Amino acid sequence: MRWNRQVVGVAIAAMVCGGVAGAPSQALGSSGTEQCDPASVSNAALAKGGPVREPDLGQIAQDLPASAKGQAKPGFTTTVPVYFHVITDGSIGAVTTAQIQAQIDVLNNTFAGGEGGDNSGFSFTLAAVTRSDNAQWFYANPTSLGERRMKQALHTGGPGDLNWYSTTAGDYLGWAYLPDIVTKPGQAYLDGVVVDWESMLGTSTTYEDRYDQGETGTHEVGHWLNLEHTFYRGCSAKGDFVADTPAEKTPTSGCPAGKDTCKAPGLDPIHNYMDYSYDSCYTQFTPGQSQRMADAWLLYRD
């Protein structure tokens, strides 16, 4: 079974931006998502017939408190244990141990600046793998009963442990909760990332030449570490709360060289892992993003 993500995505975009996003009864968190920003739901990739990247779950991003900024000093490093939960519908989605390790390798390469970006200081190690054959969980959308049951059953460890759920990611490529979810009474079990298994290296041709190099995972883990989209708040001065990511009004699809949607200096950061570009276009986190992730780690996860 595969969802028609394009048709469903249009309906979700209309619903989310009709005034209900951010309502606690409906939206428990965000993949670092905007407060009812249509671009985060019905984005350029959707217009080209591609998948809807992420949902808006209503978790509103905030700048870090002044007291938390700069707490991570130069040379910051930490290793994050990854609990990888493989959910299947029969044999569908049954990623192999080798494919899981390849995904961990992608995280280590991208967060270490292996494609040309800043070395964030974060590394990842596979702590354990669980396997569950459960169709309700496999096709679950965010904030659904299926998501809640899956995470209540499988979530492992504390705030510093990354729980990765390999499913269809419902109608999306993935989603993740910002780290302050761990401070919400009764919601810490939701913490983690949900990623479409077909975005992992060597698993499928569904997203071939678009989202097939494992970097959807990099994007979602960026949210888990408190990064916002580079196009968050468009051309506004604070944008994504990171000074060295140029302002960007709209999410990117593909790899359009020279894209420039704001009057502020700098072309759109189409190569940044926190845009919506194709995996082949991604190359970097910036030093400012590394600082924000490390400071957020010390505040929420250490």
From TrEMBL:
Residues annotated as domain Peptidase M43 pregnancy-associated plasma-A: 212-295
InterPro entries: MetalloPept_cat_dom_sf (IPR024079), Peptidase_M43 (IPR008754)
Record flagged with keyword Thylakoid: no
Coiled coil regions in record: none
One Gene Ontology term of the molecular function aspect: metal ion binding
One biological process term in Gene Ontology: proteolysis
Top-level division of the source organism's lineage: Bacteria
Keyword vocabulary terms for this entry: Disulfide bond, Hydrolase, Metal-binding, Metalloprotease, Protease, Signal, Zinc
Pfam families referenced in this protein's UniProt entry, alphabetically: Peptidase_M43 (PF05572)
Cell inner membrane found in the keyword field: no
Signal peptide: 1-23
Family in the record: Belongs to the peptidase M43B family.
Protein name: Pregnancy-associated plasma protein-A
Origin organism lineage: Bacteria, Bacillati, Actinomycetota, Actinomycetes, Propionibacteriales
